[in-house]
């Protein structure tokens, strides 16, 4: 099987793969769904910002401030192009996807009666059972603050969104819908342009706002906000080979410019008196304080890197690895996949359980062989309950993984199973 | 191999044949503790009578380290006075937080010393302590209740 990517070349650009782990083991990193590793070009971009251009963007009359502003705004332009946003003003830098979702939820919560964003008793917010806590708890809290009701789509046994009660969930009461693009546990891709186009049309028809949590999709496949037809979309830089401390919220300009602010302070105001203030339009309205400039610049470099490698090729590569892993894992005695068992509309995240071996123990054994996986509830506790498991082991693949990593995983899981079950 | 220093034979034995893993009825106190980082849970029933730990029974979902640790704890602390039990809990806790320097006193902790290796794995210390902390909580509540 020929890979869509030159993984050896890619690996050589990620310095972390030079180290060994737990003794003399090479690092087999299968935890990119939690956070990705970083290529040298991203580290260089951050360092370059600090060593040559560091100053507070949008403030100061000096050369460095001008350069810092240009770099920061340049990063915004890169994100806009990457997502095919219709304007740079639709890109808000936050510290993370978690903050982005809270921004939308708090902004809506701050909307006064009469505003089209105002929520009240009788209104409905809709999420799904496969959401990460980051796309669940902010909505629980918003519902509690406003009196709106929180409802959710269930998940089918094979890990897909259950649309059987579409009409009772998405109707004229529904004001906000927040769904994940790809589950961080199941790997399921919610194809809002394909299988789920009816859902999307219904959200639009009832006039509800639609937020997509694209944390697990933006790093791995081409995401086009105009094609997706949503109102808000968010992701975190650190899962997309970028730095920690920077996330993105994309929103339609006409909405952002009318939404009340979330965090308030410097840099987001138009005019201030001792009693009150007026606010700038987006994105500045939502970027109070000196921004995370170096991280945004690093994210710009990360997106350049992904573009250079090609997201189409990355996705194709990941589908091949996922298929290989699913086939290999399914042959292990007592192993069950939690999520879709084929590669249709499925990303490179595989959760599984092994009968008689707790995920924590399995993860510990894999770690001894140099294989880094995630174990636990993956910040999706309701989904664990849905599948009647306490925890799962999760392997996730990215552009720097290859077939030998998948072989190591499958052999490692089987070896660990024998260690605990046949000793 | 390092894995064997963590998963001692004693631990795997207790995991496969856990002691006191069946909740006895009418406890003095029942507590429920959760390891929020992994979702592991334990329910512990304590029968406490005349200053003594009369019985400890439990039910739990969790990894081999936590299950084995509940088992060892329930065996070791049963029949002890409140004071003895608390002192053993502290000794066990000290060993687990020692990062490998405290190998534990076998005369005191008995099978509990098998968990000395866990102290070198910071992510697993909570697993080993879960049941012991649940016991400590139950004991303190029982004492408060008695007074
Ligand atoms: C689907 C999904 N949504 C949201 C988040 C939250 O991202 P962050 O922790 O970077 O804010 C994550 C990351 O764990 C995720 O996988």
3D architecture notes:
Chain A has helices at 7-12, 40-53, 63-83, 97-110, 137-146, 166-169, 197-206, 225-228, 253-256, 293-309, 311-330, 359-368, 381-386, 403-421; strands spanning 20-21, 25-26, 28-29, 91-94, 124-128, 149-155, 161-162, 174-180, 209-213, 232-236, 247-251, 269-272, 277-279, 335-338, 349-354, 371-372, 374-376, 392-396. The two termini of chain A are 37 Å apart. Chain A has 2 domains: 7-30 and 310-422, Aspartate Aminotransferase, domain 1 (Alpha-Beta Complex); 44-307, 3-Layer(aba) Sandwich (Aspartate Aminotransferase, domain 2). In chain A, helix 5 links the parallel strand 5 (124-128) and strand 6 (149-155). Chain A is of the alpha/beta class and 423 residues long. In chain A, helix 2 (40-53) runs antiparallel to helix 10 (293-309), helix 4 packs parallel to helix 5 and helix 11 (311-330) packs parallel to helix 14 (403-421). In chain A, the strands form 5 sheets. In chain A, strands 4-11-10-9-8-5-6-7 form an 8-stranded mixed β-sheet, sandwiched between helices. Chain A has a 4-stranded antiparallel β-sheet with strand order 14-15-18-17, with helices on one face. Chain A has a two-stranded antiparallel ribbon with strand order 1-2. Chain B has one domain (3-146): Alpha-Beta Complex (Sufe protein. Chain: A). Chain B has 147 residues and is an alpha+beta fold. Chain B is 48% helix and 17% strand. The model of chain B has no long low-confidence stretch (mean pLDDT 94). Chain B has helices at residues 2-6, 9-16, 64-77, 82-96, 106-109, 122-146, and strands spanning 29-34, 41-49, 52-61. Chain B is built from 6 helices and 3 strands; from the N terminus they run H-H-E-E-E-H-H-H-H. In chain B, helix 2 packs across helix 3 (64-77). The N and C termini of chain B lie far apart (50 Å). Chain B is globular, with a radius of gyration of 14 Å. In chain B, strands 1-2-3 form a 3-stranded antiparallel β-sheet, covered by helices on one side. The interface between A and B is medium-sized, with 19 and 19 residues. The complex binds pyridoxal-5'-phosphate. Pyridoxal-5'-phosphate (PLP) is lined by residues 96-98, 132, 134-135, 180, 184, 213, 215-216, 236, 238, 379 of chain A.
